[in-house]
Every structure is written in C-alpha cells, then in structure tokens.
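Subject: Sanity check before I submit

Could someone independently write out the structure tokens for this chain? I want to compare against mine line by line before I put it in a report. The sequence has 334 residues.
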Amino acid sequence: MSKLTTNRVALYLQDKHPIRAGMEYVQYAERRGFEAVWQAESRLVRDGIVPLAAFAATTNRIKVGTGVINNWTRNAALIAATFVTLDDLAPNRALCGIGVWWEPLASKVGVKRLKPLQAMREVVTVVRRLLNMETVTYHGEFVDVTDIEIDIIHGRREPRNVPIYIGATGMKMMELAGEIADGALLNYMVSPDYNKEALAHLKVGAERAGRTLENIDRPQLVICSLDKNREKAMDNARMLVTQYLGQQPHLMKASGVSQILLDEINKTLAWPATDDDIRRAMRLVPDEVVQLVTASGTPDECRAKVQEYIDNGCTCPVLYPLGDDVKAMIDAFT
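---
Independent answer below. Compare away.
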C-alpha cells in the first residue's frame, strides 16, 4: 500500500453530511491522527462557524479552520471577535481562513467585490491587530475603524494564536498571501501542475515581506472520491466537477481545462443548477478532466494523486470526501 511523504493530513467538510455526522467524522479523524478539520462556507447553504464550534467542543486536539469565510459579509471586527470566541472554546486550535468569495453568488446578494486585493489586505491587517489585543484605529478604503479593541472583561486578554490563511486562487492574491498571511489555503479543482505557478507567486509575496516560501504554510483542498468500485468513485467526482465547471470556471481555467468544454457546460447548466441539469452536463465531462483535478478511484489511486499535490508544494492535504464511507477515506490516509 502506497503511503504519503508527509505526516500531515486534514479533513474538509461542506454541507453533504448532517452536522452531527460531521462531529462524528471529526472525532474519528482526531483519533486517527488527522491534524485539522476545515469547514466550508462557499454556497449560500451552511455557515462555517457553527459547525466549527460543534467540532471544537467535542474534540481535544484537532485544529478547526474556516475553509473559507469571505471578507465582505463579516466586517474585520466581527471576524476577530468570532475567532477570539473560538479560541476561548479551543485554545490554540482555531485557524482563520478568509477568501474573496465568488460569482455569481456575491453579486446576487449585493456584494460588488471591488478591489479585492486591497479589501483583503485591509481586513487581514485589522483582524491580525485585534487578535494581538491591540487598540486599533485604521482608516482604509474598505475597513474604517476608530479606537476599537476586543473588549474582554472576563477571560484571557493575551494575544491569541490564531493563524490567518488566505484562500487564494489567482496569482495576485497568491502574492498577497505570501506577503501578509501565515499561510495560503490552496484551492481544489486545480491540477497539481497549477501548484508550481502558485508557489512561484507565493515566493514573490514572501520575499516582498522579507520572508521565505518556507515561512508560508500551504495546506490544500483536495477532492477525494474513494471507493473500491472505481467507476462509482469516478462518477461521484464527475458530478461535482461538472458543477464547478459551470459555476466556478476560473478554477478550471487555472488548470488548463479547454474553453470549448467550459462553454458547452455553460450552455447546459443554469444557476442554481437542478439535478437534471447536472446529470445532462455530466455526459460532457471526460474521465481525463475528472482525474486532472481530483483524487478519484481506488485507495491506491487516491493516495497517488494526493502525493502529486504534495510533490508540487502542498504541505498538508485537506481531503474532501465524496464517497459514502467517510471513515474508509480517513483510514486510507491515516
């Protein structure tokens, strides 16, 4: 049985499983040596903070991170207060993952996402200072606060150890992550080769701040569709890949998926897509595209694909289980 060349591995959960089932999976992952669980807040379906609190309250060691919240719908002060609260619940285990959200969801709820790099810089700067228990005055274009602090009367007033990760996909945001964040949470639905360019830009940003690439943690979301029945594993992954081809084509472009396929999928899928829309569009997606951007197939095939991401700079694979047997996937990567 093939093994990974890292002892770091984490779990990624979205909204497929009931929260109480997620709690059970996280407890199991902790027993099996997983480092962290990252909770999604991508679609308008499940808040990321509530599940993290449940996971933190029912475990002892595993770290809990947002993968990711966005920097528009919560202001910097609320983000900082939220993570101080999580740190109260699970000291030194909270990971703050922040991203710039995505279209078409952002505009549908009235968020314009202007100057995303500047907005992210301002939010991360103020959140970090508040987590350090500083009194903050900051007059930026997107963050405008005067004489604020985390107003703790009862409890720990010392600076909190909450690493900040930027969920970056584009290369300018990757450079910003290298410059100002503790880490970059690398996206899924990208090929391992995508990592080479991403790391080059992370290095540019790190050097801009007098740091090295080794100073930047690089966990990466990896879709893992694992099943002894290879065909079943591939079709489970194909359904999700199809949705992302239609809803987040920028991820696919970053991995070299042809514009012709993206255009064909766009003609077939509306947003939000129905199950029938997705199943029709699935017929257009070949195995090669599924295998390009996911770890799908038998346990050995999944481990081999995850190893490719590690070989290209991922420091901790964050596995998104698509199969029905989540514990089997956890066992395969223990």
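---
OP: Matches mine. For the report I'm noting this point. The chain has two domains: 10-229+295-332, 230-294.
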